[in-house]
């Protein structure tokens, strides 16, 4: 039977909910001969080394590596994982200390100690991969160890978000014997201490995970093995689920496939779990481009773009319009772009351009990635092109590239205007603003914003109560709206589609919407 389950929680974490009668969530004990649960996704790893990835590779890392702290199911607060306990020392949020669990081991049986933790963090900064996670450690001064279990992080400035950073898969703990200090591991293998170990890996094809017998941590594994299969597009992914070639899908279902699954009859035997999400999409304007650097052009685009049309006509209401870089459900969310620009208006956009002395259609080239965010991305950008052209204020050229070459292009400043998506590193407003500002930001387009960088972000990072910093982020977003360097478009919902035989889908996504494979299991009774 087909069951659609909605989570009404608006925070950035999915909480436990029940499916309808006939598909109840029943805990099961894994058996040694249980078939692996097969999970499909379009989010294939770009690398197996955590020091190089600030992308969808984290989906795999969360399950095979371990971090000092992590987000337990249903919580958006970091709690101990490889660590026995962690805490800020002093009152300035500048010294963060962790004590490791006793007897930690990597999957190959070698010990995991404080030196491995220091090595794991230090090599990220030493290797400094372009587009890698080095930028997440901007507040870190140095790491010191105390015996075999004590690790202390000395920060160069107060940063209450540092535990959130440590909870990301970018800070996965690796074996100092297998991962060089000054270069990436290149043998195609993984030595981790997470809930699973990597049994077999075929690039862009599959990852076979089996239970790690050396694991010591909080994950309650409800299965013995998971095979992750990587697909090129949503239609192929949804088709594999219908044919029962896979058991579960996550990350990559296009809107038309979600709608189709939602409308399936009882013959399909599929359940669709919908939850609140914090994934966002936005446009980036390159300040090096003749037209995109002009504030009037950016504001005119902001005045014309119709987010409702994109959300409703292109994404079939599987996403919501977004008027703030900080999404709904995260403290600090506003509707700044709606407040400033209101409903789409060609008349207002023309007035903005005319006042700036622009009286001819503005030539703009919009770029999108053809494979990163699903096949519907092209339809989204065709709709944006249609809206801008219909205003007769812009002459739009649309171009697309596969992600591997697309990323290189925007980092080299090649694109005047380009689309990006953001899956948060951690569920805090800081992570929807800080990565996009500064000279060396995650977008490759320098965005100096002194008040945000030097005042608002530092002030917010002094406050350990993350719910009490909304005013700083509201002020930051006023600046983002005024500059219009980034144009938020929509906020995604999260969907996990699964065979009716599979339980745990509603608990499998952490607050950053990364799949925790250990929550999935086959039902043993009805």
Question: Might you state the CATH topology name of the largest domain?
Answer: Dipeptide-binding Protein, domain 3
Number of strands: 22
Q: Tell me what the CATH architecture of the largest domain is.
A: Roll
Largest sheet: 8 strands, mixed
Could you say which structural class the secondary elements and strand pairing correspond to? alpha+beta
The CATH homologous superfamily of the largest domain is named Dipeptide-binding Protein, Domain 3
**Beta fraction of the residues?**
15-25%
Strand order, main sheet: write it out. Answer: 1-13-20-12-2-11-10-9
- The portion of residues assigned to helices is 10-25%
Q: Average pLDDT value?
A: 89
Number of helices: 13
Task: Indicate the radius of gyration in whole angstroms.
Answer: 23 Å
Distance between the termini: 13 Å
CATH class of the largest domain: Alpha Beta
Number of domains: 3
> Which residues sit in consecutive blocks of at least 5 with pLDDT less than 50?
1-32
Shape call: globular
Description:
Strand 3 and strand 4 (79-80) form a beta hairpin. The protein has 13 helices and 22 strands. The model is unreliable at 1-32 (pLDDT under 50). The radius of gyration is 23 Å and the shape is globular. It folds into three domains: 3-42 and 195-276 and 494-522, Periplasmic binding protein-like II (D-Maltodextrin-Binding Protein, domain 2, 3-Layer(aba) Sandwich), CATH 3.40.190; 63-171, Dipeptide-binding Protein, domain 1 (Alpha-Beta Complex), CATH 3.90.76.10; 280-492, Dipeptide-binding Protein, Domain 3 (Dipeptide-binding Protein, domain 3), CATH 3.10.105.10. It has an eight-stranded mixed β-sheet, with helices on both faces. A six-stranded mixed β-sheet has the order 15-19-14-18-16-17. The protein has helices spanning 58-64, 114-127, 162-166, 234-242, 255-262, 295-304, 307-314, 336-341, 346-355, 376-390, 403-411, 450-461, 470-483; strands at 3-6, 37-41, 69-70, 79-80, 83-88, 95-100, 140-146, 150-155, 196-202, 206-211, 225-230, 248-249, 270-275, 280-285, 319-321, 362-369, 394-401, 417-422, 486-492, 494-499, 502-503, 521-522. It is α+β, with helices and mostly antiparallel strands and 526 residues long. The relative contact order is 0.18.
């Amino acid at each position: 039977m087909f069951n659609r389950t909605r989570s009404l929680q608006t925070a950035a974490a999915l909480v436990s909910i029940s499916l309808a009668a006939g598909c109840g969530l029943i805990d099961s004990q894994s058996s040694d001969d249980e078939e692996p649960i097969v999970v499909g996704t379009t989010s294939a790893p770009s690398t197996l080394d955590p020091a190089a990835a600030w992308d969808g590779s984290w989906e795999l890392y969360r399950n095979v590596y371990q971090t000092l702290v992590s987000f337990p199911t249903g919580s958006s607060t970091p709690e101990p994982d490889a660590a026995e306990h962690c805490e800020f020392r002093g009152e300035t949020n500048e010294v963060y200390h962790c004590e490791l669990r006793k007897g930690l081991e990597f999957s190959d049986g070698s010990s995991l100690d404080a030196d491995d933790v220091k090595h794991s963090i230090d090599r990220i900064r030493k290797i400094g991969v372009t587009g890698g996670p080095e930028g997440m450690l901007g507040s870190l001064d140095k790491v010191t160890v105390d015996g075999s279990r004590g690790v202390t992080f000395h920060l160069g400035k107060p940063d209450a978000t540092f535990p959130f950073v440590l909870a990301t898969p970018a800070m996965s703990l690796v074996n100092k014997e297998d991962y060089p200090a000054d270069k990436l591991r290149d043998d195609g293998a993984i030595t981790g201490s997470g809930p699973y170990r990597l049994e077999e890996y075929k690039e862009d094809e599959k990852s076979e995970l089996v239970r790690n017998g050396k694991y010591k941590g909080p994950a309650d594994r409800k299965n013995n093995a998971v095979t992750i299969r990587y697909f090129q597009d949503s239609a192929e992914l949804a088709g594999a689920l219908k044919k029962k070639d896979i058991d579960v899908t996550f990350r990559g279902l296009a809107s038309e496939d979600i709608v189709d699954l939602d409308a399936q009859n009882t013959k399909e035997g599929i359940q669709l779990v919908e939850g609140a999400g914090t994934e966002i999409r936005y446009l980036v304007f390159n300040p090096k481009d003749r037209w995109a650097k002009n504030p009037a052009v950016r504001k005119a685009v902001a005045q014309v773009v119709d987010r409702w049309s994109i959300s409703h006509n292109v994404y079939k209401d599987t996403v919501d319009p977004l008027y703030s870089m900080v999404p709904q459900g995260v403290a600090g969310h506003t509707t700044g772009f709606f407040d400033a620009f209101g409903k789409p208006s060609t008349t207002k956009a023309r007035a903005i351009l005319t006042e700036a002395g622009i009286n001819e259609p503005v030539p703009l080239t919009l770029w999108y990635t053809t494979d990163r965010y699903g096949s519907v991305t092209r339809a989204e950008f065709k709709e944006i092109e249609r809206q801008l052209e219909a205003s007769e204020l812009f002459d739009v050229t649309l171009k697309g590239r596969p992600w591997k070459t697309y990323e290189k292009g925007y980092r080299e400043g090649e694109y005047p205007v380009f689309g990006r998506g953001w899956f948060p590193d951690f569920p805090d407003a800081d992570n929807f603003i800080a990565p996009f500002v500064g000279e060396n930001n995650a977008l490759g387009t320098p965005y100096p914003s002194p008040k945000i960088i030097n005042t608002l972000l530092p002030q917010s990072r002094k406050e350990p109560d993350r719910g009490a910093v909304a005013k700083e982020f509201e002020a930051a977003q006023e600046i983002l709206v005024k500059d219009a360097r980034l144009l938020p478009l929509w906020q995604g919902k999260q969907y996990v589609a699964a065979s009716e035989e599979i339980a745990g889908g509603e608990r499998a996504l952490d607050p950053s919407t990364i799949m925790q494979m250990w929550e999935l299991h086959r039902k043993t009774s009805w």
